[in-house]
Write a structure and sequence with these properties.
coiled coil, single chain, Rossmann fold, four-stranded parallel β-sheet, alpha+beta, 4 domains
Amino acid sequence: MKLKNFNTQIFAGLSDQEVSFAPGLNILLGPNEAGKSSIINAIFATLFSDPKIKRNTTKDKEFNQKFLPYPDGDYIHGSLIIEDNAKSYRIEKKWSRNNPSVLLEKPNGNLIDSPEKIDNILNEILLYGESTYDNIVFAKQSEVKAAVKKIAEESELKSTVTDFLRKAVMEMDGIVTDEIKEKIEAEKDKLLSKWDLDKHQPENPDRDVNHPYIKARGKIYDAYIEKESIKARIRKAENSEKELHKINGEIESLEAELKAVVKKLTELSAIEADINKRSEIEPDLKRKQEKLSELNKIKKEWPELLKKNKEHKKKLKEYKQALEKLKEEKAAYDKFKLKEELEEKLSKVKELNQKIEKISSEKEKYAEVNEEIAEELVKLENKISNIDAQLLAGKLKAKINKASSALKIVKGINAEEEIEAGSEIEADGYIRVHNNDIDLEISSAEIDFEQLQEEHQSFREKYNKMINELEKLEISNSKEAREKLKTKNDLLRDSKEAQKEKAKILADKTHKELKEEHENIEVDSSSREIEVIRAEIEQLKDNKISDLKIEIKTKENKIEEWQEEYNSLEELKDKIKTLKTNSNNLQKELRKLAELPEEFNSNKEFREKIRALRESKEDKTEAKNNKNYELIEIQDTMPDESLEELEEIYENKKRKFNGLEGRASRLLKVEEAFSQTLKEMDEKSFEPLINSFNSYLNILTAGNYQTSKINESFDIEIIKEDANNKLPVNINLLSFGTYDSVALALRFALYENLFQDKPGFIILDDCLVNLDPERTEKAIDLIKSFKDKYQIIFSTCNPDTADRLGGNIIEL
């Protein structure tokens, strides 16, 4: 199969591009970024890539990013004409998310748009799958190492190469292995179905005798189930005998325990009535004795509380009198403190009045300064400055070379002055020179000097007048006027703040009223410190008086509580007497009853023991009956065979099982020997590939390297002829040039063995760049010889390489 023509409307950076290929050697020649790789990628995509671009697969996302035109492209196009057995086929694809399409035109002109039918036709033409073409036919030189790794790892590609080579060797040797394989597999299935021979157990350990497979069981599995079934029956018989012995022992133990329970229950039942009566009397006696103790305590405390409360009330009265004296002393201190505060306020008001008077006096100095005057000065300065700038723009320069008499000159708006002949003159906008013989005026043509002079004089006179009027305030310009105005405003603000502070101090009073209030307060200068007075008040009020009130109230509440319950101390004494009589009667009644046995700590414990014994009697009687029922059930379910008979049956089943496992082991050894024979044949299957690889490697390395071995895992070894040292094909061990030579030789060898019966095409990028001159010549000769049988598409950016190779040169 060969390529004839490719065209694309748009693909990656390509636009409306068409190339035609000839049989033999074709050279894609162009600088970097000319589109060589894009054409190769487009041809590959046209052959293998699904036109429907999905959004959720990594492969399609990468395809979209690499080849969809950025930023506005929404489709990719490719059309390829191939030739197979002198017949032409045209494949056209449009890749798109929304409107993809694929079309195949057959040699007779018929068109097919079914993707499945198109794939079937292409599979017949191409022979091999996408992975084989990607890693052998289209592989870049720099990716050959990765391609070899893919051959070893990808099942499709590895299978393609190894099956092809093995088939060739088998056919040459005349060996047929299918029948042998089928017989071994059939016998294995009969014996080993559902059985793991290495582990001597079912494939699924859970599918044992308790949960066996129903269908597709092997002989070993069946023998295992039979053996384990007998083994289970033996275990059941052994367990039944053990259980019989165990139950008989349990029945004997229950009978002994039941006898002991009945004896103890009879003994305790004899005194049960007295103990129950005692349980009623003893709590009542205990309550009466506790109440009697409580009443005796109240009888003692009642008179004492009355006495203490009387003493506390007397002490409370003394504390209150002392508190009143302290409050009077605090009031006197408060007057003293108020007088001090009023003195401070009067002093502050006096200070503020002085400040206000001073500010008022200072403020009078700036009465004539206001915002309007300051603004007017700024305007006049700006106007004068503007005129000066205009005059400055009309700069004039002159020189009096000769004069008959003394000269007078006026420069700009300046006053008249005398000059001598030969003097140079500079003026802003206007010059007047005159004497007895001449009177010359010169002015700038760009300004109206007379008008500017008149305005300047007017503004200057008005400005000077205002400055003269403000001279006493030391104001000579608008800046100083602004500063004086700011000072005036600051004084006004300070005056308002002082007035505000004074009003705050006086509040709603006048200065006179505040002074009279101060004078009317009379104080005792011998007052103690307020902290001492307050501390003594707090001590009395919050501690002593409060604590004493609480204590008095507590005692009064207690006495009221007793009076509410017992009315009086006398009635309390009568109640105590009645309780004593009742307690004595209960004690006499207890002495008539049976005593609680020493083994019990309480009547409750005795009752619980009686109840537990009765329950135990019932439980043990029921347990004994249940064990008798169990004994009967076990005797009914025991197997008909004796334990000795079952053990003999088990040994027979075990011998059968072991015999079948031995037979299976021997069968696996036969299979292993057969596989080893196939393996030895597989090793021969790589001989054609090794011979081709060795031939091309010998040419490309000028006889320096030859092939040592290629195995089914694609581990490659080469030998350097002069050193007999084995070196693996590894980029870290070989030079770039040697590596490229080995890679190119391997590609040609793989390609030749795969396509020897149906020559096709191979894509080569510039694989000569790392070769020295001698190896380059060898490689060129090899490529030229390869083109006689196969179509080669060689990609390069080097015109010299293209010329040396010759063939159909396609310039991009």
